[in-house]
Amino acid sequence: MDMHILQASKGDRPVAAPTPATGPRLLSREQLIRQLGLFAGEARLQPGLRIMADYVGASHYLLARCDLVQESGLDFVLSSDWPFDLVKGLANELVSGQSRTTELEKCLQLFQPSFTLLPAGAELPEGVSRQSCTLTFNVGRSRLSFIFLFFDGFVVSPERLRDIGLLAGYFASFLDRGSGKAERDFELTEREIECLFWIAEGKTSDEIAVILGISRNTINNYITSVMRKTATKTRSEAIAFAVRNNLV
Fold first, then answer.
1. 161, 112 in Cβ contact below 8 A?
2. pLDDT for 98-112, tens place per residue?
3. What DSSP letter does each residue of 161-189 carry, written as one string?
4. Of 36, 248, 40, 244, which is closest to residue 142 (Cα–Cα)?
5. Would residue 170 count as lying in a domain?
6. Of 141, 160, 178, which marks where a domain is finished?
7. Does residue 11 fall inside a structural domain?
8. How are beta strands 142-151 and 60-65 bridged, if at all?
9. Which of 150, 178, 206 is the last residue of a domain?
10. Quick count: other Cβ atoms within 10 Å of Cβ 67?
11. Are the C-beta atoms of residues 156 and 15 closer than 8 Å to each other?
């Protein structure tokens, strides 16, 4: 995890509604692509994330592996220049926010960024708005969220956010996105994939128990483990995840 501890202070006004913004200090799309190509070739995660944040005019960025938000601690944070205490204090908010998001909404966030207000008690860097912007995308089996903060009054460009939504996954695919432990924890076992297959075939827990020759409770435990690892809430969402990632 790459964290920078910054001096924090309160900022209460939400950022303006997202409408196009231009300005000489923002990179052009061509400059962004050229610099990302250099950083990807050198496997430099933080400079690449920072340049993408600069492209949309963000003051701070956070990249999280949101399929791991249910794990303890902050292991799901891959890189961030948010104040450490802010990330630590908002860990539960990030977890609960993901749990309330449907699988379809998660997919649409690539093209429809979500804007949410941070809690009133959160200590923010001076001049930073409480409204955050989240882009969610997939890299292989991993689901990542790119979360931006902006200074008060900054006008966000939807076109620039769409550019980043398309480029972030391409850039992240070149890089090591997490520890070996995180990758191993996320992998589904053979039994879990078997259960997913039979669920996709429309079988109930009782029917799968008969097919596999194990108890109904054990089947339900496998299914619960699958949903925990894939950050899904229902069997239908787990099936959608499995189909999207070629697991069944």
1. no
2. 556 666 666 666 677
3. HHHHHHHHHHHHTTS--S-HHHHHHHSPP
4. 244
5. yes
6. 178
7. no
8. antiparallel
9. 178
10. 24
11. yes
Q: How far apart are alpha carbons 224 and 231 in whole angstroms?
A: 10
CA distance 248 to 229: 16
Rounded alpha-carbon distances, angstroms, from residue 12 to 25, 96, 126:
25, 23, 10
pLDDT of 207 reads 92
Residue 51 clears pLDDT 90, i.e. is over it: yes
Mean of the per-residue pLDDT values for the chain? Answer: 77
Residue found by looking up tokens 């070739």 in the block = 41
Q: How far is CA 208 from CA 33, 189, 219, in A?
A: 49, 16, 7
DSSP class per residue in 89-127? HHHHHHHHHHHTS-HHHHHHTTTS-EEEEPPTT----TT
Please state the domain count of the chain.
2
The CATH number of the domain where 54 resides is what?
Answer: 3.30.450
Answer whether residue 235 shows pLDDT above 70: yes
Q: What percent of the chain has pLDDT over 90?
A: 25
Sign of CA dihedral 240, 242, 244, 248: negative
**The model's pTM:** 0.60
Q: What is the pLDDT of residues 157-203, one digit of tens each?
A: 999 999 998 888 888 777 644 434 334 345 788 888 889 889 988 89
- Residue located via tokens 């020759």: 213
Say whether pLDDT at 150 is over 70.
Answer: yes
Of residues 232 and 133, more confidence is placed in: 133
